[in-house]
Design brief:
The complex is a heterodimer of chains A (about 110) and B (about 120). With about 110 residues, chain A is mostly beta strands. In chain A, about 0% of the residues lie in helices and about 55% in strands. Chain A contains no helices and eleven strands. In chain A, the strands form two sheets. In chain A, strands 2, 4, 5, 9, 10 and 11 form a six-stranded mixed beta sheet that branches. In chain A, strands 1-3-8-7-6 form a five-stranded antiparallel beta sheet, with no helix packed on it. By secondary structure, chain B is mostly beta strands. In chain B, about 0% of the residues lie in helices and about 55% in strands. Chain B contains no helices and eleven strands. Chains A and B meet through strand 4, strand 5, strand 9 and strand 10 of A and strand 4, strand 5 and strand 10 of B.
Chain lengths: ~110, ~120
């Protein structure tokens, strides 16, 4: 049973606009939430994280929002750049276990 | 640091053959994870080790799958016998957990397995 869900398999955004990637989870015991970015033929790489005690974390063009009451997580990329085109996985952590979503493929159109 | 190193990068084999995937974690990391990526299930945890000891193998799909970590710098994932439905990309990841950080995972580049 998927504890972390990314319901949008793909997203296309114009360069310079905002990209919003969404993630829902079911387990209220998750301690941390992370976003990973994956290019073809490479392993996922860590992008940004947020603790369950916070509701926002920002790092440059990337901001992660956490809505615990809705069990919802989102990643905002602004402005979007063509190099941001990749698959984005959200992950939730409890104890030492990571649970990943199925990924959202982002295409930023020049 | 060289990062997490996996081999082979690509493996094509026939149904029924034994497949062994290898992983060298980042030096000093105390956790090692094996994941399988498929379109339907995304990144699926198969097994993870802490200080070379298997902690949770509940994600291993069947008895055909086995994993070992004989020392801190090496792990294997073995499939015997392999079946076409095992075709996927297998990732190894390592991490150093502490209370001071989020314990992010560092992934290898993956081993793409095709079973004909």
């Amino acid at each position: 049973d998927q504890q972390v869900k990314q319901n949008s398999p793909s997203l296309s955004v114009q360069e310079g606009r905002i990209s919003i990637l969404n993630c829902d989870y079911t387990n209220s015991m998750f301690d941390y939430f992370l976003w990973y970015k994956k290019y073809p033929a490479e392993g996922p790489t860590f992008l940004i994280s947020i603790s369950s005690i916070k509701d926002k974390n920002e790092d440059g063009r990337f901001t992660v929002f956490l809505n615990k009451s809705a069990k919802h997580l989102s990643l905002h990329i602004v402005p979007s750049q063509p190099g941001d085109s990749a698959v984005y996985f959200c992950a939730a952590v409890t104890g030492n276990q990571f649970y990943f979503g199925t990924g959202t493929s982002l295409t930023v159109i020049p | 640091d060289a990062g997490v190193i996996q081999s082979p990068r690509h493996e094509v084999t026939e149904m029924g053959q034994e497949v062994t995937l290898r992983c060298k974690p980042i030096s000093g990391h105390d956790y090692l994870f094996w994941y399988r990526q498929t379109m339907m299930r995304g990144l699926e945890l198969l097994i993870y080790f802490n200080n070379n000891v298997p902690i949770d193998d509940s994600g291993m799909p069947e008895d055909r799958f086995s994993a070992k970590m004989p020392n801190a710098s090496f792990s294997t994932l073995k499939i015997q016998p392999s079946e076409p439905r095992d075709s996927a990309v297998y990732f190894c990841a390592s991490s150093l957990f502490s209370r001071a950080n989020t314990g992010e995972l560092f992934f290898g580049e993956g081993s793409r397995l095709t079973v004909l």
